Amino acid sequence: MTDPVDIVHLTFLPPFATGSYNRFVGAQMEKLTEFRQAAISYWAAPQPETAWRADDTILVNGDGLSWGRELFLRLPERIRQRYYYSIGGREHLIYTWRVVELVAKLRPKIIVCYDGYKLGRPLRDAIDWPCRIILGQCGLTYNQPQLDAMRVYSLQSFDVVWTQTRISYRYDRDRLVLYEPMVMVLPNGVDASQYQPVSPTEKASVRAEWELPQDKLVILLLSRQVPKKGTHLIVQSWPKIVHEVPEAYLWIVGTADLEYERYIKGLIDRLELSNSVRLQGAVTPEKTAGCYQAADLYVFPTLAGEGMSNTLLEAMACGLACVASEHASARELYSDEEVLFVPDANIGDAFVRPIVRLLCDSSLRRRIGEAARTAVEQRYSQDIIFDQLRECYRQQMGLVSG
Predict the structure, then answer these.
(1) Per-residue model confidence as pLDDT tens digits over 265-280
(2) Sheet strand arrangement including 57-60
(3) What DSSP element (H or E) covers 222?
(4) Strands (DSSP E) along 46-172, which ranges?
């Protein structure tokens, strides 16, 4: 695909891969059909047979590099980083080179870099046609040294920074002498028709598919299993929760860091929790809705400030009452009626009382779950967010002449 397009999405992971913002790109390409769009992604493995919209997704890798670039890649990473826009990693260097070559052929009016904050400068130096460059900042912040951050939040890199919350913008702005680009605050959206509540009969059927116990209260913890997501806090507190609510059952779902997985398994073994805790491992994106629909409660014990958690939003869309760590970005997005927040998540057993309270009060669980679903329907459904995004793209195109 080399015909001119309106929008190029630079997402390192392709839309068909496991992930959050890359699949959001895929949804944009499917739903916002009034724009000619393409995604450029890095992919060195064979393309899956089920790859979604392959005609619109350009996959790049290191095949066919020039001898000069091959030689450059043999330099130590710290040297490569010094001489090419602070980009040193092999795969990211290859990706950047390919992107610069391809956008010159596609000549888009808008380029969106999803967390590709180092792409702004090489793109700016290469583009010689009217084009708006947008940084899609998916997390709270990149935690860069001030001088590096000032290069990112400069018109020499990006025309617009797209954040999911005002907190994200303010966090970076308050640390910098100067923050130049315009900011577009646009939250995540969720497909409310895919992620939706189910009836008790349907819930029982979904549980049977996952071989979950029908007589238990299932607490789902679905996220990438790394230390900053806080799974260990819930596991360490689990004996107290089960003591209060013997029918409680913890279901941990998500791709795991191997070392962290060993740590969690060690806790489960030492605390003798194998009868009430299941480590499910990774599930495909197509099956995640069923995970929420099989559960009674969702817990989100993240220890890091998030931009806007997709898993929390998906759980809310499925009508689950959610217990979540209190962070400024989540507070901006949701009220106390929609999410039960836990301040000071690291302090011992902070999640015990909130979880026990909801497990013991089905009417409270139902009210919070209904309020969560309403919040999604009124503010965060994909259709609502795409209407806002559509208008933002039109405004940006209006600033491109020719």
Answers:
(1) 999 999 999 999 999 9
(2) 57-60, 37-42, 7-10, 110-114, 132-136, 160-163, 182-185
(3) strand 217-222
(4) 57-60, 110-114, 132-136, 160-163
Q: Say yes or no: do domains 7-189+382-398 and 200-380 share a fold.
A: yes
For residue 30, pLDDT beyond 60: yes
- The per-residue pLDDT for 402 is 54
**Residue 79 above 70 pLDDT?**
yes
Q: How far is it, in rounded angstroms, from Cα 31 to Cα 372?
A: 25
> 7-189+382-398 — its CATH code?
3.40.50.2000
pTM above threshold 0.85: yes
Separation of alpha carbons 240 and 384, rounded Å = 41
Encode 101-129: b = buried (16+ Cβ within 10 Å), e = exposed.
ebbeebbbbbbbbbbbbbbbbbbbeebee
Residue 338 has pLDDT above 70, yes or no: yes
DSSP string, 257-288: -HHHHHHHHHHHHHTT-TTTEEEEE---GGGH
- Indicate the domain borders of the chain: 7-189+382-398, 200-380
In which region does residue 339 sit, left (phi positive, over 0), alpha (psi from -120 to 50) or beta (all else)?
Answer: beta
Going by C-beta distance under 8 Å and a sequence separation of 6 or more, which residues neighbour residue 255? Answer: 18, 224, 225, 281, 282
Give the model's confidence band at 140: pLDDT under 50 very low, under 70 low, under 90 confident, else very high. Answer: confident
What is the pLDDT, as a whole number, of residue 2? 67
Cα(395)–Cα(375) distance, integer angstroms: 27
Over 60: is that where the pLDDT of 51 sits? Answer: no
Task: Work out the average pLDDT over 95-107.
Answer: 97
The first and second tokens of residue 270, run together, are 């030492």
Q: Enter the tokens of residue 55.
A: 């005609």
Residue 269: CB partners within 8 Å, gap ≥ 6? none
Question: What span, in angstroms and rounded, lies between the C-alpha atoms of 324 and 301?
Answer: 6
- What is the rounded distance in angstroms from the CA atom of residue 331 to the CA atom of residue 335? 7
Confidence of residue 53 (pLDDT cuts 50, 70, 90): low
CATH 3.30.1490.20 fits domain 200-380: no
Phi–psi pair at 277, nearest 5 degrees: -135, 130
